[in-house]
Amino acid sequence: MRTESTLSVIFFTRKKRNDPEQLDIYIRITVNQKRAEISLKRDIPATEWDSTKGRGRGTAPNIQRLNGYLEQVYGEIFNSYKQLHLERKIITTKAIKLRYLGEDEQRKTLMELVEYHNVTMHTTPRPGTMKNYYSTKKYITKFIKEKKKVNDICRSYS
Fold first, then answer.
1. What one-character-per-residue DSSP string does the chain give?
2. Which residues lie closer than 8 Å to 12 by C-beta, 6 or more apart?
3. Per-residue pLDDT of the chain (158 residues; tens, 9 = 90+)
4. What is the pTM of this model?
5. How far apart are CA 54 and CA 11, in angstroms?
6. Using alpha carbons only, what angle is made at residue 43 by residues 97 and 46, rounded to the nearest 5 degrees?
């Protein structure tokens, strides 16, 4: 089975602005060569970070706790990816990031938006204007079926 998207997750650091001896820890999610980064709000001394492994270096209790936290975050990112895959959603870095942060929202399809507009605007415009809205819906439906060969179009994440 061919996969439609490639997923890569790495941890990396940046120097703190106010203390160059400390490093802020970030996670980078890459899907199909597009990136999203999340600050993990954790820091570590520069001497204790192993950049090749993307983890803390050593066996001190604080390093073990940090590495455990990084493994937990790594697992949650992959769970977010798997959830999106199981829900047959479009998998992008933004979608995974929003799912991980708990900020993802239901996306509407084009026809759902047109229907929502027509239902909510039902009483506001004059009947002639509503007739134009219904005609527009009919033409959009026809265009999507004939040109795109689908029944509806989902909005994709950028």
1. ---S--EEEEEEEEE-SS-TTEEEEEEEEEETTEEEEEEEEEEEEGGGEETTTTEE-S--HHHHHHHHHHHHHHHHHHHHHHHHHHTT----HHHHHHHHHT---PPPBHHHHHHHHHHHTSSSS-HHHHHHHHHHHHHHHHHIIIII-SS--BPPP-
2. 25, 26, 27, 28, 51, 54
3. 445 678 999 999 999 989 889 999 999 999 999 999 999 999 999 999 999 999 999 999 999 999 999 999 999 999 999 998 998 888 899 999 989 988 776 667 888 888 888 888 777 788 888 888 889 999 999 999 998 888 888 765 44
4. 0.64
5. 5
6. 125
Tell me how far apart the alpha carbons of residues 102 and 73 are, in angstroms, rounded to a whole number.
13
Burial class (CB in 10 A: 0-12, 13-18, 19+), 46: middle
Q: Which residue has the tokens 């870095």?
A: 93
Rounded-to-integer distance, Cα 75 and Cα 83, Å: 12
Can you tell me the distance from the alpha carbon of 150 to that of 148, in angstroms, rounded to the nearest whole number?
Answer: 6
28-31-36 Cα angle (round to 5):
35
